[in-house]
Design a protein that fits this description.
Layout (H helix, E strand, L loop, with lengths): L5 E7 L5 H14 L4 E5 L5 H12 L6 H25 L3 E5 L2 H9 L5 H9 L7 E6 L2 H12 L8 H13 L5 E5 L4 H17 L1
Parallel strand pairs: 1-3, 1-4, 2-3, 4-5
Helix pairs in contact: 1-8, 2-3, 4-5, 4-7
The structure holds thymidine-5'-diphosphate.
Length: about 200
Amino acid sequence: MSGRGWLIVFEGIDGTGKSTQCKEMEVYLNKIGIPVSRFREPTDGVWGQKIRKILTVGRGDVTREEELSWFIEDRREDVENNITPSLSANKVVLLDRYYYSTAAYQGALGLDPDSILRENENFAPVPDRAYIFTAPPEECLARIESSRGSHSSFEKLEYLKQVQKIFDSFQGTNIKRIKSSGAIEDIHTQLCEDVHQLIES
Ligand code: TYD
């Protein structure tokens, strides 16, 4: 029988440390011999490249609806090329950002978060676990600015506060909120315990 694998996504506003935790989880699962794949969205595909361009140079005359459609197209490709094949191979799939980010970030631009979630769930598998990393947006912004020396248009404080508010509103038994103000190792340990429970249940 072909497997179903596990889809575990890492979500939250910029600067919460989710990418670090996602990478550490990959290292850990590899070390203990559990087959794992790690991906990130936006991807490095054609849609992802278009998105990253507006992230660095600004949206210009690209409308928020158009931008939303790029995120969706990028995700369709990711699901088809990366996520579904890895799940079918019975792997643990770790994903740095997924459709909760679209609902929160594009929702914070004024689009409807619920309909964004629904549109995504029509084609994208629902994650077995979604870790939503939370930290005060002020702290996150300070972290981003000190590590990069600058910030993009996506990283303005008021916007991030709104994004955080939408992340806070998501409900579901698959969602776990992770306070990201603790030590990296402590959060990693907490996540490892949860992942073991998930994949051994
Ligand atoms: P991020 O993972 O922070 O990339 P980087 O590794 O370059 O820091 O993602 C880039 C930005 O894209 C981030 O600010 C959130 C935004 N984003 C959306 O607005 N909608 C989405 O659906 C996704 C996946 C990301």
